[in-house]
Amino acid sequence: MALLLAMAINPGTHLGRYEIRSKLGAGGMGEVYRAPEALKRAVEYFNQAIALDPRYALAYIGLADAYALYFDYGILPFRESLPQARDAALKALSFVCFMPEDTTRLSPN
């Protein structure tokens, strides 16, 4: 969902197929930037994990987070990304009822 780099990069810069949108933060390991292609790749990986284990609740949680960010990253309109995020979060809840990570994905704010 984010790309970790050891150097400062300006938003709009392209690194291979990744376009840097904004800086997320910095720390001892470098700086973290938003990259829509990295988010798309994360969705692919979550779906691969679900294909291997259809009851893997944490993969559905990650998928819900990723789909929720699709609108923010400009990948899908809100009316398309929100139902996918909701469906993934509800699927996770169908497997595990008492994980705090699950219920926050369904909060109205």
Notes on the structure:
The chain is an alpha+beta fold and 109 residues long. The protein folds into 2 domains: 2-34, no CATH class; 36-104, Serine Threonine Protein Phosphatase 5, Tetratricopeptide repeat (Alpha Horseshoe). It has helices at 36-52, 57-72, 78-95, 100-104; strands at 2-5, 14-15, 18-19, 23-27, 30-34. Helix 2 runs antiparallel to helix 3. It is elongated, with a radius of gyration of 15 Å.
Secondary-structure topology with pairs:
Elements (H helix, E strand, L loop, with lengths): L1 E4 L8 E2 L2 E2 L3 E5 L2 E5 L1 H17 L4 H16 L5 H18 L4 H5 L5
Antiparallel strand pairs: 1-5, 2-3, 4-5
Helix pairs in contact: 1-2, 2-3
Terminal Cα span: 21 Å
Rg on CA atoms, Å: 15 Å
Shape: elongated
Largest sheet: 3 strands, antiparallel
- Helix content, binned percent: 40-55%
SSE string, helices as H and strands as E:
EEEEEHHHH
Task: State the total count of DSSP E strands.
Answer: 5
Q: How large a portion of the residues is in β-strands, by DSSP E?
A: 15-25%
Number of domains: 2
